[in-house]
Write a structure and sequence with these properties.
Pfam families: HTH_31 (PF13560), MLTR_LBD (PF17765). The chain has 277 residues and is an alpha+beta fold. The protein has twelve helices and five strands. The protein has two domains: 92 residues, 434 Repressor (Amino-terminal Domain) (Orthogonal Bundle); 166 residues, 2-Layer Sandwich (Beta-Lactamase), CATH 3.30.450.180. The longest helix has 18 residues.
């Protein structure tokens, strides 16, 4: 049996109706005189009041009459309907809108992910966001790279460290490839987060401070690299090779778990000696 293509207008209407009907009016503190009802969930006028739109607008949306709500209206509806993060993302997708940057979570590690990073030891691991800000790390990653805790928060950024930290500028055997991959990721992030002033400022800083970055940025490569191999020149462990894996959590799609693993037996032995110190 084949499934027909999704009609966004009809699906938006159905999603709004079912989301409204499954809400418990008692959880909204509605006046007693308004609680008696024959239909489940909230009434359309109640959702309209909570979202700050007209009743007619809600009616037209639920009747699939061709409306395309703005990002502001989508956010208001998501709040009124108490949508989960996944449901909120789905609503934005149906409305063909992008969440405003101000509505997105701050650059703070999700607690379960921070716990995961610690528990991944002895594998070096850290948590990044779309800007390459380093949100959480384990001891092994600090032994391999740098003591993030000792850095000012503004310098806890993987691209900043690669470009500007004096101890890491010659850390990667193939620095050009590492930087180019980072630039391709940042360009993709820049396009999908157009209102992220912190990201724009970071890119401007790199363009002004690093000629290689500026030249490679102008080539407009776009890619998100989730797996690969790097050769590191560690000041204590010597030259070693690692494979990296980037995992994207479903619950926190703007955060990434980065894990390093030894790429060969000699590198594994070098890491074991380093982490035993």
């Amino acid at each position: 049996m084949m499934t027909r293509a999704v009609d966004r207008t009809e699906e938006l209407a159905a999603f709004l109706r079912t989301s409204r009907e499954r809400l418990d009016p008692d959880e909204f503190g509605l006046p007693a005189r308004r609680r008696a009802r024959r239909t489940p969930g909230l009434r359309r006028e109640e959702v309209a009041e909570l979202a700050g739109v007209s009743i007619d607008y809600i009616v037209r949306l639920e009747q699939a009459r061709g409306l395309r709500p703005s990002a502001d209206v989508v956010e208001a509806l998501a709040g009124a309907l108490r949508l989960s993060p996944g449901e909120r993302t789905y609503l934005y997708g149906l409305a063909q809108q992008q969440p405003r940057e101000a509505d997105k979570p701050a650059a703070v590690a999700a607690e379960p992910l921070a716990e995961l990073i610690a528990e991944l030891a002895p594998l070096p691991a850290m948590l990044l966001n779309h800007r390459y800000d380093i949100l959480a790390w384990n001891r092994e990653m600090t032994r391999l790279l740098v003591d993030f805790e000792a850095l000012p928060p503004a310098q806890r950024n993987a691209m900043w460290l690669c470009l500007r930290h004096p101890e890491l500028q010659k850390f990667y055997a193939d620095r050009e490839t590492v930087v180019r991959q980072g630039i391709a990721h940042l360009r993709a992030a820049w396009a999908t987060h157009p209102d992220d002033a912190a990201l724009s400022d970071l890119i401007e800083e790199f363009l002004d401070a690093d000629q290689d970055f500026a030249r490679w940025w102008a080539e407009r490569d776009v890619a998100v690299n989730g797996r690969g191999r790097k050769v590191l020149r560690h000041p204590v462990a010597g030259e070693l090779a690692v494979r990296f894996e980037v995992l994207a959590p479903i619950e926190n799609p703007d955060q990434r778990v980065l894990i390093y693993r030894a790429a060969d037996d000699a590198s594994r032995a070098a890491l074991d000696r380093l982490f035993a110190q």
